Amino acid sequence: MTTMDTITEEIAHFIGLFHTNVEDARLRESYQDFSLYTPEQFIQTSAVIRSDFEAPYDLLGFDPGVVYKAPASFTPIWHPHFVGRYDHPPIPTMEIKTHHGPHETPQYEYPFYASGKSFTWEIQPPGSVANFIVQAASLSDNDSFGVGGHGLTFNPTPVDNSELLQTAQDVLADAPIGDLEMPKSSDELIEIIKTVASQLEALAAGSDGPMEAFLHQSTTIEGIYVNGVLVDEAPKLEDHHSFSEDEDEADDAADAGDEADADAEDDAQPSNVHVYADGSVEVEASVELVGGNNTVVNDAVLKNIWTGATVTAVVGNHFEINAVIQVNIIQNTDAITSAISGWTNDGAPDEIFNIATFQRVDPLEDGNAPANAGGYPASWAVTEIHGDLLIANWLEQYIFMSDNDIGILSSSGATTRVIAGDNTSVNQISIYELSQSYDLILIGGSLYDANIIHQTNILFDNDVVGAVTGFGTTGEGTISSGGNLLWNQAHIYNIGGADRFSALPSAYLDAANDFAAGGRDISQGILTDPAFAGTAGLRVLYISGDLLNIQYISQTNIVGDSDQIALALNALNPHADATWSISTGGNALINNAVIADLDSLGITYVGGEQYSQETLFQSGLISSSPEWAAHDPDALVNEAVAFLDDSMLEAEPTELGFGVPVDPDGQYQNDGLQHVLG
Questions:
Q1: Which stretches within 148-271 are classed as H helix?
Q2: How far is C-alpha 645 from the chain's CA centre?
Q3: 546 versus 637: which is more confidently predicted?
Q4: Using alpha carbons only, what angle is made at residue 413 by residues 409 and 416, rounded to the nearest 5 degrees?
Q5: Which of 2-6, 148-152, 454-458 has the lowest mean pLDDT?
Q6: Average pLDDT in the 162-191 region?
Q7: Closest by alpha carbon to 494, among 390, 595, 617?
Q8: From CA 492, how far away is CA 177, in angstroms rounded?
Q9: What backbone phi and psi angles, to 5 degrees, belong to 260?
Q10: Do the bridges between strand 447-460 and strand 415-419 make them parallel or antiparallel, or are there none, so unpaired?
Q11: Can you say whether the dihedral through the CA atoms of 177, 182, 188, 189 is positive or negative?
C-alpha cells in the first residue's frame, strides 16, 4: 500500500474531484442529444380516447319525482320535419296486432291511425295473495321457593289450570262468531263469510247475565267506542302500562341533566347498606316478592292495498261485513291473612278496556277526489283473470302462560328479593300488501269482502297469602294483589265510501258478456262514464269468477297467575322490624289489531244484491270464586306447613373441615332461579 503525505493527498483529491465534474458535463450533453430522438410513449397518438368503462347494471332512468300520468302509449310511425333542410333519420315501422276494431280507432286523437297502423297496450293482472299464519306461545313458570331461615316446609296442593282452560274453551266456543276454522278452499271461505254474517244478525246483547255486553250493528259504523261508549278520543296504552319502567326513569334522568349524579350514585354504596361513623355496617332487613307482573302481547298490523279501481262493476252480488268482537274475562279472588291488616294495601283496581275504532275514507269526497279535466278515454287495455281472485289474510295469535307460584318467606336480617313472575311473551305480525290499481275492475261473478277482528283475554289471578302461627311484624309492609290490565284494541280502516253503490248500467253488463265470450270491446257507454273523465286510456281488469277479499285476525291471551304464599318468622331471630313488600298482581294482557283495507277508489256498480253489515260486540266479565274466597288463608297455610324433623336436618357426609348449613332455606332458594339475596 502506497502512502502519501498530506500535501500529495490533497492534490490527488482535487484532481479526482475535477475529473468527476468533467465527466458530469459530458454525460449531461450526451443525454440531451439522446433525449431528442426518444419517442414519448405516454402521449396518445390516436385522436379518439378509448375507455374501458363498463356498466354491468341496467339503468332504470332518472326519476325526478314529478307526478305525471302519461297518455296511452303508441308506436310512432311518422316524424316531424325539422327546421332547415335536414329530416329526422327514418324510424322503422312494423305491423302490430290489436284488439281494437276499425270503428274504435281514435283517429281524431292520433292522426297516424289513418294509415291503418295500430298498437296493443298490455298491462299485467294482479295475482292472488293468501297468508294463513298461526303464532302460538306457551310459557310455564310455576316456581317453588322458601327463603329466610324459617325451618319450615310448605307443600300445598298446586293450582290446577284445568278450570282456566275449560273456561277458555267455553268462552271461545260460545263467542258470537264461534271458533272459526281455517278455510281450505274458496267455497269454504265464502261459506264462512255468509255464516259469520248470519251469526252476527242473530246476535243479541244479554244484560241479565254476569257478562256485560254491548252490541252495535248497522250498515255503517263510524267512531271510537270504549267499553260500549262512543268517545272522541281513544285511551292510550302508555297511560296505563309501561313496558320499560327502568329505562324510562333512566331517560328522564338523562334529559334532566343528571348524568353526573347517576355516575356518582353508581360509585356510592348500595341503598340498603348503612355505614356508621364508628365503622360498623348494617344491611337493611327487608323481604320483597314479585309474584305477578306478567305481560303478554298479541300485535297484528295488516294493510291490504292489493288492488282497486275507480269503477268496480260486479255482475253478481256484493257482500261486505266488518266486525269487531272483543271479550275480557278476569277472575281475581284473593284470600289475604288478617295478620298483615296493618300493612299498606295499594288497592289498585283491575282495569278492563275494550277499544274499537271504525273509520272510513271516501276517495270521492271533497278534497280527496282527483281533479278530472279534459275529455274521455279513447283507448283501453284489458287484462283477464280466469277464475277467482283471492286476497286472503288469516292470522291467529295465541299465548298461554302459567305462573302459579308456591313459596314461604321469612326475614333473614338481610335484603331478600324474590322474582317469581315478571315474564313477557309477545306475538307480532306486520303485513303490507301492495300490487296494482286499475281504472275499471269488471267482475263476472260476485264480490265478497270481510274484515273481522276477534280478541279475547282471560286471566285467573286467585291468590292466597297466609301467615304461619305466631307471625307478626312491627316494620312497614305493603301488599298488592290487584292492578291487572286487560286491554283489547281494534281498528278497521276502510278506503271506499259507504254510499258508493249504484245499479249496474247495461253497458257494463254488455261488456261483461262480451268479455265472457272472448271479446275485448268497450262501448261508448263505458268510455263516457263521468268517472273516467280526464283519463287518456282505460286500464281494465276482468275477473271471470269471484273476487274474495277477507282479512281475519284472531287474538287470544290466557294467563293463570294464582299464587300461594306463606309468611313466617325466622327460627333464630324473628326480625320483626323488617320491611315487607308482597305483589301478586300487576299482570297485563294486551291485544292490538289493525286492518287497513282498500275496497274501492270510486264507484261500485252491482248487478245483483248488495249487502253491507258492520258489527261491534264488546263484553267484560269479572268473575268470582266463592269457594276460594270462603277459605281461611291462615288455616290453608298452616295445614300445608310442617316443621323440619331431625331426619330432614341431617346433612350428607362431607370431608373433615367443611361444614354444611343446617337450614339451606335460610340462604338459598330451592330451585336456584330468579332469586336475589343480598
A1: 162-173, 186-201, 245-255, 259-267
A2: 55
A3: 546
A4: 50
A5: 2-6
A6: 89
A7: 595
A8: 18
A9: -65, -40
A10: unpaired
A11: positive
Strand pairing report for 675-677 and 415-419: antiparallel
CA distances from 436 to 128, 308, 439 (A): 12, 7, 10
Which contiguous run of DSSP H or E holds residue 469?
none
Identify the residue whose cell numbers are 320483626. Answer: 576
Q: Identify the residue whose cell numbers are 280466469.
A: 386
Place of cell 297518455: 71
Please name which of 453, 202, 197 lies closest in space to residue 320, comparing C-alpha atoms. Answer: 197
Q: Which triple of cell numbers denotes residue 437? A: 290499481
User: Please, are residues 334 and 626 in contact by the beta-carbon 8 Å criterion?
Assistant: no
With beta carbons less than 8 A apart as the criterion, state whether 148 and 666 touch.
yes
Place of cell 275504532: 357
Q: Which residues of 655-667 are buried (b: 16+ CB within 10 A; e: fewer)?
A: eeeeeeeebebbe
CA distances from 388 to 4, 127, 313, 384, 445 (A): 116, 10, 15, 11, 9
Write the DSSP string, 15-44: HHHHHHHHHHHHHHHHHHHHHTTS--TTS-
Compute the residue count for the chain. Answer: 678
Give the integer Cα–Cα distance in Å for 529 and 159.
69
CA separation for the pair 603, 9 (Å, rounded): 115
Q: Amino acid identity, residue 217?
A: Q
Strand, coil or helix: 507: helix
Looking at residue 278, the DSSP 8-state letter turns out to be T
Give pLDDT tens digits for 325-382: 999 999 998 999 999 989 998 888 999 999 999 999 999 886 566 656 568 888 899 9
Max Cα-Cα span within the chain: 137
User: DSSP letters of 585-625?
Assistant: ---EEEEEEEEEEE--SSEEEESS-EEEEEEEEEEEEEE--
- pLDDT tens for each residue of 50-69: 666 666 666 666 666 655 55
Least Cα distance to 590 among 300, 263, 284 occurs for: 300
